[in-house]
């Protein structure tokens, strides 16, 4: 997978340079692309603004490759984080409160609308919400190429674990409520989430991901196994 980023004095490429960059990466063997709606690092993993992302999707669509997206709304996270700091709230649970579910679903809607417009296959890199898979299915029904996946922590860790683990439990998107974990399992069992993988993992010593159930759910898709012990 190739993480493509815009370059140049203004932080953007021209249309021609963008097309050349993406086509060149595809020709060199890139199997997919990854972009972000949230800026973690201005060089290593920047936020790609909407006009540039739309143009990138058009060019990626020409290659036939997929584009994975880190899906969090930048403006909401920045504002909520600033408000929390101003109120003196820096306790662990505020990592969840400054990145609420709406932060994800708003980003999902933006990227899926652009997927529908451009024909690019747009994939949520790590949804912590069953809502993400519902939105992907909604847009697929309208002809878009939209999909997503979960990470293992979103099937077994909750907000209570973040309070217990503190910084060792920090990941983005954050752990969700126990009720959301149940919704994630239901989506996984129904085949809504095509895959699950470990990524942006919490720190060591976070404990085991095991669940109690009377019977395991069916695999989410061929070649994908899910179990709740």
Describe the structure.
This protein has 229 residues and is an alpha/beta fold. It is 41% helix and 10% strand. It contains eight helices and seven strands, in the order βαβαβαααβαββααβ. The strands form two sheets. The protein has a five-stranded parallel sheet. A two-stranded parallel ribbon has the order 6-7. The model is unreliable at 6-15 and 200-229 (pLDDT under 50).
Helix/strand class: alpha/beta
Terminal residue distance: 32 Å
- Can you give the mean pLDDT? 82
Strand order of the largest sheet: 1-2-3-4-5
Question: Would you report the number of β strands?
Answer: 7
SSE inventory with pairings:
Blueprint: E1 2-3, H1 15-27, E2 32-36, H2 50-63, E3 66-70, H3 74-86, H4 94-97, H5 101-118, E4 121-124, H6 130-141, E5 146-148, E6 150-151, H7 159-165, H8 178-189, E7 196-197
Parallel strand pairs: 1-2, 2-3, 3-4, 4-5, 6-7
Quick description:
The chain is α/β, with parallel strands linked by helices.
Based on the model shown, name its key terms.
single chain; about 230 residues; alpha/beta; 8 helices; about 40% helix
């Amino acid at each position: 997978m190739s993480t493509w980023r815009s370059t140049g004095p203004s932080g953007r490429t021209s249309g021609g340079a963008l097309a050349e960059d993406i086509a060149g990466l595809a020709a060199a063997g890139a199997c997919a692309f990854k972009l972000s709606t949230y800026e973690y690092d201005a060089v290593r993993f920047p936020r790609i603004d909407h006009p540039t992302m739309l143009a990138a999707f058009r060019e990626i669509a020409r290659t036939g490759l997929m584009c994975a997206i880190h899906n969090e709304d930048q403006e909401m996270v920045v504002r909520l984080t600033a408000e929390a700091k101003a109120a003196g709230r820096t306790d662990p649970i505020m990592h969840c409160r400054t990145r609420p579910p709406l932060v994800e679903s708003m980003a999902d809607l933006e990227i899926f609308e652009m997927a529908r417009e451009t024909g690019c296959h747009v994939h949520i890199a790590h949804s912590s919400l069953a809502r993400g898979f519902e939105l992907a299915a909604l847009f697929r029904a309208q002809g878009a190429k939209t999909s997503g996946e979960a990470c293992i922590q979103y099937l077994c860790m909750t907000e209570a674990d973040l309070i217990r683990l503190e910084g060792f439990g920090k990941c983005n998107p954050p752990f969700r409520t126990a009720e959301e974990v149940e919704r994630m399992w239901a989506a996984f069992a129904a085949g809504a989430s095509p895959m699950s993988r470990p990524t942006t993992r919490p720190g060591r010593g976070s404990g085991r991901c095991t669940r109690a159930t009377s019977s395991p759910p069916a695999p989410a898709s061929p070649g994908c196994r899910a179990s709740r012990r």
